[in-house]
Design brief:
The complex is a heterodimer of chains A (121) and B (106). Chain A is built from no helices and eleven strands. With 121 residues, chain A is mostly beta strands. Helix content of chain A is 0%, strand content 50%. With 106 residues, chain B is mainly β. In chain B, 0% of the residues lie in helices and 55% in strands. Chain B is built from no helices and ten strands. In chain B, the strands form two sheets. Chain B has a five-stranded antiparallel β-sheet, with no helix packed on it. In chain B, strands 2-10-9-4-5 form a five-stranded mixed β-sheet, with no helix packed on it. The N and C termini of chain B lie far apart (41 Å). The chains are: A mainly beta (121), B mainly beta (106).
Chain lengths: 121, 106
């Protein structure tokens, strides 16, 4: 099955620094990737939709200048948390859709990465 | 606004019983619904997808129904096991419902 990887799996950083998280589709091409954030015991919250070769679409309330998304290739999207603060500590998860040969939206499941645990001190 | 709702409270059942989780949607007509399982500290894993023209879909001990009249999908786990304990999420294309945490007691 399709595999999505994330790196790093866990990161601890000081307040004010920037952290980059990578999301890769290992055996398929993903024109669209999604970034989610999940706080303890809460559901996934969609942050943004990352489109290859174009600007990301951010959900309401998500600061695009703070959470920089780059989707430079069909297999890689990155999320950079700039000037991180303790309240940014969370579990960040990416997902990707395998559009396959038809790109039929209704037939696409999302494949999730294993997540990145960010702790800002 | 479009909304996906799942039972926010945890569901506790005895091993061997059938667990039934509910996903309701409003102001929305999804062409399909997907069900995922998420274990603590891990990303969700896809389980089943059911389309609007399908009444029921099965996979091993799992069964999903889709009632477009009631605007509801039900997710059943038969002969539940402690290993089935996890959070189960339903989702149309986007966004996810809140998820229901299932606890199966031996």
């Amino acid at each position: 099955g399709a595999v999505v990887s994330q790196h790093p799996s866990r990161v601890i950083c000081k307040s004010g620094t920037s952290v980059k998280i990578e999301c890769r589709s290992l055996d398929f091409q993903a024109t669209t990737m999604f970034w989610y954030r999940q706080f303890p015991k809460q559901s996934l919250m969609l942050m943004a939709t990352s489109n290859e070769g174009s600007k990301a679409t951010y959900e309401q309330g998500v600061e695009k200048d703070k959470f920089l998304i780059n989707h430079a290739s069909l297999t890689l999207s990155t999320l950079t948390v700039t000037s991180a603060h303790p309240e940014d500590s969370s579990f960040y998860i990416c997902s990707a859709r395998d559009h396959g040969s038809g790109g039929v939206d209704w037939n696409n499941e999302q494949f999730f990465g294993p997540g990145t645990r960010l702790t800002v001190l | 606004s479009q909304k996906i709702e799942q039972n926010s409270e945890a569901l506790n059942i005895q091993e061997g019983k059938t667990a039934t989780l509910t996903c309701n949607y409003t102001n929305y007509s999804p062409a399909y619904l997907q069900w995922y399982r998420q274990d603590p500290g891990r990303g969700p894993v896809f389980l089943l997808l059911i389309r609007e023209n399908e009444k029921e879909k099965r996979k091993e001990r799992l069964k999903v129904t889709f009632d477009t009249t009631l605007k509801q999908s039900l997710f059943h786990i038969t002969a539940s096991q402690p290993a089935d304990s996890a959070t189960y999420l339903c989702a149309p294309r986007l966004p996810f419902g809140g998820g229901t945490r299932l606890m199966v007691k031996p």
